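Forwarding the complex inputs:
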Amino acid sequence: MYSPAVENLITQLARLPGIGRRTAQRLAFYILRSPPDQALALADAIREVKEKIGVCEECFNLAEGPLCSICADARRDRTVICVVEDPSDVVAVERTHEYHGVYHVLGGALSPIDGVDPEHLRIAELLRRVEANAAVEVVLATNPTMTGEATAVYIADRLRGRCRVTRLASGLPVGGDLEYADEVTLGRAFSGRREM
Amino acid sequence: MRAVTVRGSDFRCYERVAVELPPGLVGVVGPNGAGKTALIEMIHFGCLGYSPRTTSEAQVVRFGAELLRVETDVAVSGGPVSVEIGYRPGEPKRITVNGAAERSVERLLGRFPVLVFTPDRLRLVQGAPALRRAYFDRVLARLWPAPAAASAEYARRLSQRNHLLRRVRAGRAEPGALDPWDRLLAEAGEQLIAARARLCTRLAGPFAGRLGALGGDPGEDPLRYRPNVEPGRSLEAALIERRGRDIERAVTGAGPHLDDVLLFEHDRDLRLYGSQGEQRRALLGLILAEADLLSEERDEPPLLLLDDVTGELDGERRRLLLEAVAGFDQAIVTTTDQADLGGAHASVLTVSGGRVAA
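Prediction (whole assembly, two chains):
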């Protein structure tokens, strides 16, 4: 229907997460209509991130160079390692300004249905790092989903006896209304209640 | 709870119908094929958003029509509530409760205690354990939503573990990868076992009472929970012990997905040795026991919908049944013969050819 070049653009756009074929068509036509420098700026931006941004050799976070900005920062405490699923989770934890250790990005969570087994995640690398850094604590900050829990359990088992292993608490969102909390969240918050 | 009015369009045989439903015992009387069952189904659909009868729900839309609508006014202890449901096959249902959109059909189940007897539900007594597990988990969902969530979570974890077993058998994953899934499965499984055990304990008394009141002979323990792994035993230990066999068969061989609940009359398993009449009585007893438990837990006596419940019952048993349901706010009973309602004090709705008259 479209010329091969347009068709190719639509197909490439439709591979992006959250973009269906209809949206891909709309984006493609927008790009076709937009001035050349604007469209090429997008292409350059994509090329630039792919050329410049790699993964950190230490923690597998996104990095411009061999180490990410956190691993390169000498003030961070290397004996505390926070384990997350994806680089976007690092950003989320960093926003709290509460954490001064380093991170370890697994690159996903265990999910046999999707064919993700322990060797597909950077778990062996984590175990090596725990030894090398003489870590005193590993904070498991995988998502509170089934696959995130399974990943946390798997890692905790492997670290038992080597260092302190903690898991982020889960419960009610701050500023949220009890009335709107679902039963499971509220149930967890209940079992995790604390003395005041 | 009771239904006050129900208005429907293009539901089964009804092109357009509006029915006022009196309180107490209501007889829906008419010949075969007149639309008695469809009326019961419509009230159920109108309150809970799904049909109790069919699995292919598109069939509830009148033949030749594109969509249906049901508007129901109900009275619960908190006051009147109106539920409107629009349904076009292939699209999500549009549900509003007192004018506010409601996206989850499941929430209606928790909100409106409506219980239904239809002859199709006899499969619950006669059929495979999976049907009984599904039934009891649904009762759980209604009574105690938090522990009931364990059932869905357990199913998701079970599916992950079974996938992993297949991968391990094929040599594509290490057996050690099963560790976290054993733990997670056991955690949700033990919650589910505890919830089911609690439910069966709570239902046992009312069930025995109702069975007796319907002319049965419950004997000792007429409701018996048969967990695959006993409550209090470690499911994780059972899974670890079975690991070798599970990998060989690539399926999880221990856990609450293999539970059953058996119905007995005087030490006879009714699934295997019950007559049609006894199985029917057991199902009624179970539904009424559920009604008792719901009334007790929620302070809201449920609305009973009983389709063709008097068929196959002799005069005495019919009388006992009508006596048993008379205590509820509203019980709507279909029958082909008004005489089946006997001397019971009932309002009568006459159904014929897609019309309902008081």
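Chain B has two domains: 1-113+300-358, 127-298.
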